[in-house]
Amino acid sequence: xxxxxxxxxxxxxxxxxxxxxxxxxxxxxxxxxxxxxxxxxxxxxxxxxxxxxxxxxxxxxxxxxxxxxxxxxxxxxxxxxxxxxxxxxxxxxxxxxxxxxxxxxxxxxxxxxxxxxxxxxxxxxxxxxxxxxxxxxxxxxxxxxxxxxxxxxxxxxxxxxxxxxxxxxxxxxxxxxxxxxxxxxxxxxxxxxxxxxxxxxxxxxxxxxxxxxxxxxxxxxxx
Length: 223
Known about the structure:
Elements: H1 2-48, H2 53-60, E1 78-88, H3 98-101, E2 102-107, E3 119-121, H4 128-140, E4 142-146, E5 151-156, E6 163-176, E7 188-192, H5 193-199, H6 203-215, H7 218-221
Parallel strand pairs: 1-6
Antiparallel strand pairs: 1-2, 1-3, 2-7, 4-6, 5-6
């Protein structure tokens, strides 16, 4: 009886303490969860910004990888889109030499050599003009107005030795970014038409350039 009384007394003293201890643990966990959620939303709010601009910029600063969404033609050719980023030297607007009026933006290959225009695969979750803008942003770090298509060309991929179908567009550049997804693996440079003709490593891109120059002829610029 004495032992039971002693044990019961200890039990009566321990139970309330356990209850208090359990309450403190529960309150601590709840507080930590609240604090963690509060911190999470603070960080998310910072990244997102008041109008989501930071979130948009972060999303666009990562180049797409893989070909899970790649489009192909009915013949099984990979569909590629590209653009010729250009600007007009308005200080020379008195001249009728279109080669002098126009500058084009060229980029290097990922290996750091050669001269080409931005291009890449057209994917199933985007329109063709959205793909053009994405490739221009990822590879050259520019935005602008996508104009009507210059044409369609078939060419052999140097890497895979298969036939691709390339669609080229003019991009009237309105913005140059100081940081862009592939800035570490590509160089970009504004060049004259003559330099682009001589240095561009793809014949089909040079043909697209000639189509653009014809479209931008003095008769059209002054219209």
